[in-house]
């Protein structure tokens, strides 16, 4: 009897711990591995806050969540020691043919070093810093192979190139994120509304914010066109701003505070998004929603939307100092919706 040949899986560990936008920008790298190495089993170490996004990626086999940020603040606490041991036990369930550190920081180097390689497995990391991105030397000390990348490069492209060089394939022309929430499975906050447009106004940096008066003026224009504005928030300060904006824009709704996976599902059922440079804005891009991303300084080359060349452009970035005008954002919104 002829026995069918079974190809052993290629076990790959991606290390990209945070933040939300950086994790979203890494999803295409996982999709590239899946497309070019059909036998790949991709595991991913990520901070637990962002684990729902990685779990939603169709290319990822197993998500290994950690809480390094919290553990560092309470290193000697009993629950920290117990959580650390549980994390190591999960991390050590597999031996990996390739461990790819896409973070380039001491904390990601630590995770890469703690993970186990197979007999011929290797650890890969960036050989140097790239423009506008943090980099720490331990990432190279831990690596068996340090990969050179061009210094002036988009964050998403950097991760895709690193994985392609580590696993010996060409970066695909097709850009995929692998997030496919069902349009028919509406979140409760979108069931009673049509033509919803999300205003992503919250950001961890004050210099990335767009003036409240601009949000007001844009909201009035969209309302006049028959759209209804919805306002998410992630903390009390953002909630208060959402409430203030809702009072100024006819029929605007403040969404309840939601988990990342709930927000992703809710956003997927909307018409589109206007937002500042933030993790939620990058999720909008990954969902292929019409989206205008607002920048007060020129970092759009590094984190802004990148589309497939053969597709209609559905996401645009707008950059100006001290901040883009309402007219500029409105013009790009109309182009995204055309």
Please give the structural blueprint:
Layout: E1 10-15, H1 20-36, E2 40-47, H2 51-55, E3 60-66, H3 68-73, H4 78-91, E4 95-101, H5 106-114, E5 116-126, H6 138-142, E6 145-147, H7 155-167, E7 196-200, H8 212-224, E8 228-231, H9 236-248, E9 253-254, H10 260-268, E10 272-276, H11 279-286, E11 291-295, H12 300-303, E12 315-319, H13 326-337
Parallel strand pairs: 1-2, 1-4, 2-3, 4-5, 5-6, 7-8, 7-10, 8-9, 10-11, 11-12
Helix pairs in contact: 1-7, 1-11, 8-13
Structure description:
The chain is an alpha/beta fold. The protein has 2 domains: 10-167, Glycogen Phosphorylase B (Rossmann fold, 3-Layer(aba) Sandwich); 188-337, Rossmann fold. Helix content is 38%, strand content 20%. The protein contains 13 helices and 12 strands. The strands form 2 sheets. Strands 3-2-1-4-5-6 form a 6-stranded parallel sheet. α1 (20-36) runs parallel beside α7 and α8 (212-224) packs across α13 (326-337). It is globular, with a radius of gyration of 21 Å. The N and C termini lie far apart (61 Å). Mean pLDDT is 93; it is low at 1-6.
Characteristic terms for this protein:
338 residues, alpha/beta, Rossmann fold, 2 domains, six-stranded parallel beta sheet, 12 strands, 38% helix, 20% strand, globular
